[in-house]
Design goal:
Length: 654
């Protein structure tokens, strides 16, 4: 066993590391220094001597280090009220309160936003602007310089000012710290303002996870009754990814044994949102998304879009996905903050503009559940193209250039802009989302409210059962916790493609390409669709704990794609593979393009059009008759795309 003197030397050596030196330098006479004994760097010494003796040793060593800094100060008497104590419990951000005033708190957080680096004055000489009397001063613990006046009577108590030639400054930066999503109470993370200084400046960026050691302080302002709080950060370090809930060895063995049974996958599918009746194909595709593909040179994350009439449980499917994932956010298309979905510029109370991370960077490595996807603002819509394919988000505005990682799998839901889905126009026109953005989704499901007496009765019975005795409701194969641990485990697996599987995927891809070539109105199938097929096949193998994706996985994915296209009235098996109504992207002119071309042809030099002439020419086009031509113009008029001139002609708005 070590002697007490040897243990003190050992403890002093550990406390003289850069991290603890920064923390000790920040101590004030009323501070509370807490040391987490769960950290391995102190646990061995604590276990040898026990709590009381370790606390005494800790105080002696800290005072010894402080004496080296404050040579002219009687440290034991000046810092007599300082509290130095070891602790065992990790503190969560929502547990930090007024009781922690001036106390060192250690917590995990997300960097939400950061201001530009500034400087504060550490030391300087204060001089009188009249007689040049002066003396050297240092800032206090709150980085404020003392307010001094000239003692010379002839100067009439002139205020002393800092001599610019004697300034000793240090960098300081303001950060906005948000509670990690997996630790937030009621899914409502709180936020603190943090101040970092010195070498720590410019080491934290929006979207990063950090472990913070800092002092909880009140910023006193005599002009206010209610004071602001900050975290005066003494040290910060990168934090590993979220500790995910995983199945125990016994649970994993049971799951793998159950996976050998033919009905395993069907039971897992029914465990997803069991309170929602039916939608088995959609639920299976959502489980494929949660499992994900294999990340490599190409993205492995799967993106899914649910489109349909109101009151079809789209939001409930999204909310259940949020419930069984740890690193995820549920939000609307407008976003939950001014940052929206990608990156936003936020104005502080002092008028300063700072970059703030949105939903996608904040849950990078996880999932974003976006309701009302069609309601996105223009900035987010343009940034989504980059986020969904390159998996980064970038912003360059007001002299700020920032790029953040956004390796996020997106599950989105959208409602038709006219209430009910119109099958005569494309999906993009129905939900006001551009075709280029739609093409980045691996799966797009259309959920329509069709009247079917048998299905309607089954749905009604399912809803009524949820209001009655719980014994009538069938218990799911996996509860919420078990489903979360199952998803977390399979998501980390990395199955491979067998040669036979590769040939089968190529065969399906070639068929899709051939059908696309034969029908000019069909979508031009490209490598993006091939990559989606690969991702989905690997995800299906994960669901069954396979080390290698086989032909059965490819066939299962093909059946899902067949079912998906059928929701849009398209049939892959029969060769009817026209996806124009699905995405709005086509190999030849769309109806909208034809109408725009004819409008331009019949307009005069001023861009004015005689409506009867336009309607006659449009009705002559192959794609139109008199009724459909009238529908196009009525839609333009409803959406205020055209306006009537005083002379009876019409003009398109720019």
């Amino acid at each position: 066993m070590k002697t007490e003197s040897r243990m003190k030397d050992d403890l002093q050596e550990r406390l003289q590391s850069p991290k603890w030196t920064d923390i000790i330098d920040t101590l004030t006479p009323t501070s509370t220094l807490t040391i987490d004994l769960r950290v391995s760097e102190f646990s061995d010494l604590f276990n040898e001597v026990g709590y009381a003796k370790f606390e005494t040793m800790l105080r002696d060593v800290v005072f010894g280090i402080m004496k080296q800094k404050y040579l002219d100060v009687d440290v034991p008497s000046t810092f007599a009220d300082i509290k130095i104590k070891p602790v065992f419990d990790k503190i969560l951000m929502h547990d930090i309160n007024a009781k922690h005033e001036n106390t060192l708190v250690n917590f995990d957080c997300l960097i939400l936003a950061g201001d530009v680096a500034k400087t504060y004055i550490k030391e300087c000489k204060l001089i009188c602007p009249k007689c040049e009397y002066g003396f050297a001063v240092t800032c206090d613990y709150n980085r404020n310089l003392p307010l001094e006046f000239c003692p010379n009577p002839s100067c009439r108590s002139a205020k002393l000012i800092a001599d610019p030639d004697t300034l000793v400054t240090e960098y300081i930066q303001t950060l906005f710290l948000q509670e990690p999503l997996d630790e937030a109470r009621h899914n409502s993370p709180i936020m603190f303002v943090g101040k970092i200084k010195g070498n720590a400046v410019r080491t934290a960026f929006p979207g990063q996870r950090k472990k913070i050691s800092g002092f909880f302080k009140t910023v006193y302002d005599s002009k206010k009754v209610e004071q602001d709080n900050i975290i005066d950060v003494a040290h910060l370090e990168d934090l590993d990814d979220v500790k995910l809930l995983k199945p125990t060895k016994e649970e994993l063995k049971k799951l793998k044994d159950e996976a050998k049974k033919p009905d395993f996958l069907n039971r897992v599918i029914k465990s997803y949102a069991p309170h929602i009746y039916g939608y088995l194909e959609i639920k299976e595709s959502l489980l494929l998304q949660l499992a994900g593909g294999v990340n490599g040179k190409r993205r492995g994350d799967i993106n899914t879009l649910l489109v349909g009439d109101p009151s079809m449980a789209k939001s409930e499917l999204l909310k259940f996905g949020k419930k069984i994932t740890q690193t995820s956010i549920y939000t609307s298309g407008k976003g939950t903050s001014a940052a929206g979905l990608t990156i936003g510029m936020v104005k502080l109370s002092d008028g300063t503009m700072i970059a703030q991370a949105g939903v996608l960077p904040l849950c990078s490595g996880g999932f974003a559940f976006i309701d009302e996807f069609d309601k996105m603002n223009k900035l987010d819509r343009s940034s989504m193209h980059e986020a969904m394919e390159q998996q980064t988000v970038s912003r360059a505005v007001a002299g700020t250039n920032i790029t953040l990682p956004a390796k996020t799998s997106i599950l989105a839901a959208a409602n038709p802009k006219f209430g009910k889905y119109d099958p005569t126009v494309s999906l993009g026109e129905n939900i006001n989302v551009p075709p280029a953005l739609l093409s980045r989704f691996d799966l797009i499901w259309l959920i329509k409210d069709k009247v079917d007496a048998r299905i309607d009765l089954a749905k009604a019975s399912h809803i009524l059962d949820s209001y009655s005795d719980d014994r009538k409701i069938e218990k799911p194969f996996l509860n919420t916790r078990e489903l979360m641990s199952y998803v977390n485990y399979i998501r980390e697996q990395k199955p491979k493609l067998s040669p036979q599987t590769r040939r089968e995927i190529l065969k399906i891809y070639e068929k899709m390409r051939t059908l696309s070539k034969e029908d000019e109105s069909a979508l031009a199938i490209g490598t993006r669709q091939l990559e989606a097929l690969i991702r989905l096949s690997l995800a299906h193998a994960k669901l069954l704990f396979k080390d290698e994706a086989d032909v059965e996985d490819v066939h299962a994915v093909k059946e899902i794609l067949v079912d998906m296209f059928k929701t849009f009235g398209l049939d892959m098996d029969e060769g009817k593979f026209d996806q124009t109504l699905m995405t709005g992207v086509t190999g030849k002119e769309t109806k909208e393009q034809v109408a725009n071309r004819i409008w331009a042809e019949v307009s005069d030099a001023n861009g004015d059009v005689m409506l009867p002439k336009f309607m006659f020419q449009l009705a002559l086009a192959d794609e139109f008759d008199e009724s459909s031509a009238k529908k196009v113009f009525d839609r333009w008029d409803t959406n205020c795309l055209v306006r009537m001139n005083t002379n009876g002609t019409w003009r398109k708005k720019l």
